[in-house]
Automatic annotation (TrEMBL):
<dbReference type="InterPro" id="IPR043519">
    <property type="entry name" value="NT_sf"/>
</dbReference>
<dbReference type="Pfam" id="PF12627">
    <property type="entry name" value="PolyA_pol_RNAbd"/>
</dbReference>
<keyword id="KW-0820">tRNA-binding</keyword>
<keyword id="KW-0694">RNA-binding</keyword>
<dbReference type="Pfam" id="PF01743">
    <property type="entry name" value="PolyA_pol"/>
</dbReference>
<comment type="similarity">
    <text>Belongs to the tRNA nucleotidyltransferase/poly(A) polymerase family.</text>
</comment>
<keyword id="KW-0547">Nucleotide-binding</keyword>
<dbReference type="InterPro" id="IPR032828">
    <property type="entry name" value="PolyA_RNA-bd"/>
</dbReference>
<keyword id="KW-0460">Magnesium</keyword>
<protein>
    <submittedName>
        <fullName>Poly(A) polymerase</fullName>
        <ecNumber>2.7.7.19</ecNumber>
    </submittedName>
</protein>
<dbReference type="InterPro" id="IPR002646">
    <property type="entry name" value="PolA_pol_head_dom"/>
</dbReference>
<feature type="domain" description="tRNA nucleotidyltransferase/poly(A) polymerase RNA and SrmB- binding">
    <location>
        <begin position="174"/>
        <end position="232"/>
    </location>
</feature>
<keyword id="KW-0548">Nucleotidyltransferase</keyword>
<keyword id="KW-0479">Metal-binding</keyword>
<keyword id="KW-0808">Transferase</keyword>
<feature type="domain" description="Poly A polymerase head">
    <location>
        <begin position="26"/>
        <end position="148"/>
    </location>
</feature>
<keyword id="KW-0819">tRNA processing</keyword>
Length: 388
């Protein structure tokens, strides 16, 4: 068994396996780019000129990790401590229809680099030779800070690369090279051809980034939002606010769609095929936002929504509404029906009414802590018993 502490150990091990099996291996893509830029990246892509799954199992025999294999493309992902190592069989790709997934043919490292999006991502480190293979001048572009496609059909083949160009240009403060920029702008309409899953995936990757706000602003300035959605207006305000212990993509997703109308929820679901959690979060967000501006508040439903909704919904409302939101969010109760039962009241519809009263007391600032909620409940129940 081997213990890998860093990338150098991994390179040594790959070299050893390559020598033994005669299957050539290369470290490629993002991790090479980020290593050269001095940016930490624990997602390692390895291309082998041979069967990726076979190579991955040999690697696994040296390491104590987990493996997931993908038969169709003969690739495998190995998880080892903080590393995620994708082992890919070198391949050539043919795009038969724009924006659809390509057909593949197993091939060599050159073809595998030639199928890639940008020159800075088409660098490979040859572990046997100990040198970087740079077929498309990626090193120079990396030095100059330039995003450049390898060929003029790149964005037509795969319009997700439009989002990727924006992500890399913003993340590293790089320029999109002029010809690439023109090709990119010409292909924006082709985003319509992408499946909902692929568009959602790209949007969520953007929302995960530190500079998500800037990226979304660029997406809007290129009119990409108008290609994806019919009438929905995206919000960029507060997209850069950071909270810990919440799912940043979901939180930013809610901030992004903060001003949505009721009918937009179905459109977002259709255009992005969001999962049930995202769908429910959007509905809760819409309901709570509407209630904030409503004179006759539905206390029961607000209480129940706040109780069950995701933390990200509350954080989104808080960041967008400030003190106004605080007022209802601070109503979140710790007392439950079982606490009322423990205080000697048999289950009945009265439970809901009592909890509503505690909730109101909380949003009005009469009580604040969990203990005060119980004390308040006790008083309410005593009054009830006395028939007041
Ligand atoms: N790639 C591509 N076209 C795409 C997606 C990916 O050519 N539409 C290639 C790129 O060479 C990229 C590699 O596949 O480097 C791995 O993709 P991914 O993991 O998405 O990107 P990373 O380069 O690892 O970058 P990031 O830091 O954004 O994850």
């Amino acid at each position: 068994m081997r213990i890998l502490v860093n990338g150098i150990d991994l390179i040594r091990l790959l070299k050893e396996i390559s020598l033994k099996t005669k299957i050539k291996s290369y470290i490629v893509g993002g991790v090479v780019r980020d290593f050269l830029l001095g940016v930490k990246n624990l997602d390692i892509d390895v291309v082998v000129e041979g069967d990726g799954i076979e190579f991955a199992y040999i690697l696994l025999s040296y390491l104590k990790g987990d493996i997931v294999v993908y038969e169709a493309f003969r690739t495998a992902t190995l998880s080892y401590h903080n590393f995620s190592i994708d082992i890919i069989s070198a391949r050539k790709e043919y795009y038969e229809c724009p924006a659809a997934l390509p057909t593949i043919e197993f091939s060599n490292i050159y073809d595998d680099m030639a199928r890639r999006d940008f020159t800075i991502n088409a660098l490979a480190y040859d572990v046997m030779e100990g040198k970087i293979l740079d077929y498309f001048n990626g090193l120079e572009d990396l030095k100059k800070g330039v995003i450049r496609v390898l060929h003029s059909k790149s964005f037509i083949d795969d319009p997700t690369r439009i989002f990727r160009a924006i992500r890399y240009a913003t993340r590293y403060s790089f320029e999109i090279e002029e010809k690439t920029h023109n090709l990119m702008k010409e292909s924006i309409e082709n985003i319509r051809l992408l499946s909902a899953d692929r568009i959602r995936n790209e949007l969520l990757l953007v929302l995960k980034e530190d500079k998500a706000k800037e990226m979304i602003e660029k997406i809007i300035s290129y009119g990409i939002d108008k290609v994806i959605f019919d009438e929905i207006t995206l919000n960029t305000q507060n997209l850069d606010t950071v909270y810990t212990n919440i799912e940043v993509e979901l939180y930013r997703f809610l901030v992004l769609f903060y001003y949505l109308k009721e009918k937009d929820i179905n459109e977002i679901e259709k255009k992005l095929r969001i999962n049930k959690i995202y769908f429910k979060a959007l509905k809760d967000l819409f309901f709570l936002r509407e209630q904030l501006n409503c004179q006759n508040k539905n206390i029961r439903k607000i209480r129940e929504t706040i109780d069950k909704t995701k933390e990200e919904v509350l954080r989104a409302i808080e960041v967008m509404e400030g003190e106004k939101a605080e007022k209802i969010i601070k109503g979140k109760l710790t007392v439950r029906g079982k606490d009322i039962k423990n205080l000697g009241l048999p289950p009945s519809p009265l439970y809901g009414e009592l909890l509503d009263k505690v909730f109101e007391a909380k949003i009005n600032g009469i009580i604040t802590t969990g203990e005060e909620e119980i004390e308040f409940l006790k008083r309410l129940i005593e009054k009830l018993k006395k028939g007041e």
